[in-house]
Amino acid sequence: MEDRVTQTEVRNLQSPESASMVNSRSLWLAFWVCGFISLVLDQATKWIALGTLDPYAPPTVIPGLFELRLVHNDGAAFSMFRGGRWVFILVSLGAAFFLPLYLKSLMNDGEDHTFYPIGLGLIWGGAMGNAVDRVFREDGLVVDFFHCYWKQYSFPVFNVADSAITVGLIAIILAAMFLGTPKNPRGETDNVPDTL
C-alpha cells in the first residue's frame, strides 16, 4: 500500500521558521494595507469635501449632533496645537520611518497579533494623510469637515486621517491591555523578514 501524505501531514512537516515567515508577511500586509487605505480614503474624502461643501452652509447629517462643516486647519489632529506647520511635517515624517521599525521590533520579540499592525498602519496612514495637506495644500492647511456637536458643546472639526489615528491608538492600547507580552519571544538570530 502506497504511503500517502495528507495536507495535514504536509503542514506538520513545515519548519517553525517557515511558518513564522508566513505569519510575519501577513502582519506586514495588514500594516501596509491599513496604512494606504487610510491615506487614500483621507485624500479622496478631502477632495470630495472641497468640491461639494459650502463652508458657509454646512449640511446637517444628524440634526443636533453631526454636520459636514468645511474648515481649513493649521493645527494638529482635531485642530489642536495650531501653527507650527513644519514641526508637524517633521513629526509626520518621523512617524513614517518609526512606525514600521517599531512594528518590526514587536515582531522580533514574538508579537503575532494583528491588532498591532492594524493599529500602527492606521496611525501611519493618518499621519501621512495630514502630512500631504501640510506639504502640498495652500499655506499648509489641513482640510477638516466632520463636526460633532450637542447643544452648546462643540467637538473640534476633524477628518478621516484624525479618525484613523484615533482608532489606531485605541487598537494598540487595547492590545497592550488585553493581549499582554509575547508568549514566545524569538531569539536574536530569528528576525522577521525585512520587508520595510
Entry keywords:
4-stranded antiparallel β-sheet, alpha+beta, 11% strand, 4 strands, 196 residues, 56% helix
How are the secondary structure elements laid out?
Blueprint lengths: L6 H7 L2 H37 L7 E3 L3 E8 L11 H24 L6 H22 L5 E9 L2 E2 L5 H19 L18
Antiparallel strand pairs: 1-2, 2-3, 3-4
Helix pairs in contact: 2-4, 3-4, 4-5
Q: Radius of gyration from the CA trace?
A: 21 Å
The global form is: globular
| Protein structure class | alpha+beta
Strand order in the largest sheet: 1-2-3-4
Low-confidence stretches: 9-14
Sheet bearing the most strands, described? 4 strands, antiparallel
**Tally of helical runs:** 5
H/E series, N to C?
HHEEHHEEH
Return the domain count.
1
